Structure formats: C-alpha cells, structure tokens
Amino acid sequence: MIGYLEGTLLKIDQDRILLLANQIGYEVLLPAVVMETLKTKTLGDTLSLHIYYQQTERQPKPVLIGFNLEAEKEFFQYFISVEDIGALKAVKALDFPVAEIARAIEGNDVAKLTQMKGIGKRTAQKIIATLKGKMQKFALVSKPEKTVMPVEEDMTKQVIDVLVSQLGHKASDAKRMVSEALTRNSTISTAEELFDEVYRGET
Predict the structure, then answer these.
(1) What pLDDT sits at residue 146?
(2) Which residue among 29, 78, 91, 132 is least enclosed by CB atoms within 10 Å?
(3) SS3 helix, strand, coil % of the chain, rounded to 5?
(4) Which helix (H) or strand (E) holds 175?
(5) Per-residue pLDDT at 170
(6) Average pLDDT for runs of 10 along the chain of length 203
(7) Residue 150: predicted pLDDT
(8) For residues 30 and 88, what is the distance between their CA atoms, to the nearest angstrom?
(9) Biggest alpha carbon distance in the chain?
(10) How far is Cα 67 from Cα 73, in angstroms, rounded to an integer?
(11) How many CB atoms are located within 10 Å of the residue 165 CB?
C-alpha cells in the first residue's frame, strides 16, 4: 500500500495531479484545500505528498488521495468514518482548511459545515455527532507555508489558546501544562505534537 510519494510534478488538472516517482506516473486526487497550495508550483517541481490509498470491493480501481501534512490525512480518515461520507465525497467537500472544519465540529457550527461542497444540514449534524470531541488537535493544524511568528512561539500560543478557549482550562494551568510538556520532550516541532504531549502528561 502506498502511504507517501515524492516525485516530479508532471501535470495539474482541476482536482488531480500526475506525479512521476521512480519512473512511474501516479495520478493523485487532491482536495481543493491541498490543490490551493500548489499555486506556487510549476511543472517539473519536486512535490511530496502523504497518501491515503482507497480500494474497496465496490471500487476495485485503486484511488490515491494526497495531502501536504500527515495531520490532514489523519483528519480525512476520521472524516470518512462518518456515515454517508465516502472518500470521493470527502475529497470534494474539503475546500476549507482542516483547522477551520475541526473548529466548526467542536463548536457545533452546522452553518459553517454546510458551506462545504456536497454537505447538507443533516450530513453536517452527523459529522458533529460522530466526530465532536476528537477534533481538538486538528484545530491546531496550520497551512504548510504559513509562518507568522517563530515556530515555538506560534505553536505554544496555539496550544494554550485551545486549552483555554475550547477545553476550559485556566490560562495559568494551560501555560504550566505546555511548559511541562516542552520540558519532557524538547524535540517537539509542531502544535499537534505539543498537544499530544500535553495530554500524555495529564493521563
């Protein structure tokens, strides 16, 4: 099974690309939010993608779906666990950043979810019912190219904000939890890793 590809960008279509890796051209479907990040790419550039591999009895032809981040792929796997949302429908629906969708789920924001392509009110309610409580760390996922402030300061602020505003911790406790997590694991480099380490220390 294919989980990751790195190669040369040969072709860009509306919802997919052709990626040359080890002399093989792979057709990879991309959600709109991932395709948006390719605007700075040109044919011949090197591209790496985390791959979700889809093959079922009803759909025997393998389908490769690409993501910039492992966290986006993990979110996608949660998303398609919702009743009536298959992989191809999910690819079309993901036209907002993962962090925005995660925050909408945790905040019971049906209106926001129905702005996604192909998602009606009933499906939005199913998404919330299935995934609420599992999305906190995905609310921290940043766009790959976004660097507004130094990485450590940025991820620390993101995690503290989520702990306080979404999970109800006091600001002083949140700062302590983050500080202890960074002390335990100095190799943390992303907000998602920091969030996981915070809760590893609290359990």
Answers:
(1) 43
(2) 132
(3) 45, 15, 35
(4) helix 171-184
(5) 86
(6) 91 93 93 89 92 79 91 94 91 91 93 94 95 87 51 75 81 87 83 80 62
(7) 46
(8) 10
(9) 54
(10) 6
(11) 13
How far, in Å, CA of 167 to CA of 171, rounded? 11
* Long-range residue pairs from 113-116, CB within 8 A, at least 24 positions apart, any chain: none
How far apart CA 167 and CA 165 sit, in angstroms, is: 6
Q: How far is 161 from 180, CA to CA, in rounded Å? A: 16
Token duo for residue 76: 């996608």
> What one-letter code names the amino acid at 201?
G
Total residues found in the chain within this entry: 203
DSSP secondary structure code for residue 188 in this structure: -
Q: How far is CA 57 from the centre of its chain?
A: 27
Q: Which two tokens stand for residue 108?
A: 């019971």
Contact assessment for residue 27 and residue 64, using Cβ atoms and an 8 Å cutoff: yes
The per-residue pLDDT for 41 is 86
| Gyration radius from the chain CA atoms | 18
- What's the pLDDT score for residue 6? 94
The Cα–Cα gap between 171 and 177 comes to 10
Q: With the C-alpha atoms ordered 9, 37, 141, 179, is the resulting torsion angle positive or negative?
A: positive
Q: Tell me the two tokens of residue 40.
A: 């700075």
105 neighbors 164 (Cβ within 8 angstroms): no
